[in-house]
Amino acid sequence: MEHMENLDQSRASSSASHRVVIVSPCRDEADTLERTIASMEAQTHQPVRWIVVDDGSSDDTPRLLAAAAERIPWLHIVRRENRGFRKVGGGVIEAFDAGRATLDLPFDFIAKMDMDLEFGPRYLERALEYFAEDTNRAALSGQIHMHRNGEVVEEFSMVPEAVAGCFKLYRRTALEEIGGFVQAVMWDGIDIHKCRIHGFKTINVPDVLLRIIHLRPMGASDRSIYRGRLRWGEGQWFMGSIFPYLLASGVNRMRERPFLIGGLLIIVGYLKAAILRRARFEDPGFRRSLRQWQWRRLISLVGGRTQ
Fold it and tell me: Which class does domain 2-214 fall in?
């Protein structure tokens, strides 16, 4: 017992020295951003820099951010010109990269974090402890929950190696080795498979201290959750996913809100992109590796059910 306590103390001491930066792309988030700011301000392990990239907001977001920056010395605001619409997918990473380019201090970990979240005060502290357990761990997150009927429930299931795109914390050296995020839809799936290719590990952790509360349904920032599910399927086509894997994923998502229709729209989005012969991720080696991994996963799942 004493040995375990000493080990925990050693991990905590090690993680305390790690410098974390947060980059948050945001657009018209006045309804939620104050709750996200409160969550970050309460962290026991505070970031050395938090850059919020206001991507052309037209609501009360700029005023609220300015007020927060007056009292939080490590919060910096980057203001981008209003393009007239919310550019999901690649636009989010354009804003992230714009914020990252302003960093002028050393750091060990970097997170892309949305401004419609709540999380506990030990989130960063606990995440760094999990990183300390395995130096080959490139990225991690907690699991995503939401408020529903007065309860906190899991928003949707994630495979163990997935990392929540809304709060993606990376070891800096790993993110640099995979070449950063691509400025395209499904950036948060492409990066995870790039990590596999490079031999890194990624994980979402079912730890209550790492619980992420989504303040609006995933994929609902652009018009509606239905459009978000269609976009998810289109993104799977772009990334290079095989149809059997996409079909299995879509059927599985039919159990989640919006029931049935959400999973069906994922499948429709993929087929629409295929029929229209939309562009695919330009790296054929990546697509080939992804397909091989997906076939192996499908075969293992079928094998597991028949044993």
Answer: alpha beta
